Amino acid sequence: MLEHEGLALLSKDFATRSHIDLYFQRQGITPRIAIEANSISTIVEIVRRGRLATLLPDVIAYEQAGLNSIAIQPPLPQRNAVLLWLSGAYRSAASQAFANLITHRFDVHQESDNF
């Protein structure tokens, strides 16, 4: 079914797009890409106003009122993110607050006690 949908996708300079392209390749799907954009909000608006579909991270998709989110099968492999900084280096109050927000909101594993 996915191979029959016209798609609005992020441009190739996004890591998310590389992840999606690899998924298509592994599934033997040649996507029907109708348009590429370099902004997630632009992609969402294109889908909202037209007849195209898109693939975006689920955290973004679930925040979009008025759009239907459909899980694809098999699902894309999970990606991980890390927050790095130089050990012992100065961190502003804003960067410390951001680290605390991320670690508590998403219940992430901490490799270091330097938070």
From TrEMBL:
Entry's Gene Ontology cellular component terms: cytosol
- LysR substrate-binding domain ranges (all copies): 2-106
InterPro entries documented for this protein: HTH-type_LysR_regulators, LysR_subst-bd
- One of the GO biological process terms: regulation of DNA-templated transcription
Q: Which domain of life is it from?
A: Bacteria
The protein in question is named: Transcriptional regulator
Q: Tell me which species this is from.
A: Photorhabdus khanii NC19
Give the taxonomic lineage as stored in the record. Answer: Bacteria, Pseudomonadati, Pseudomonadota, Gammaproteobacteria, Enterobacterales
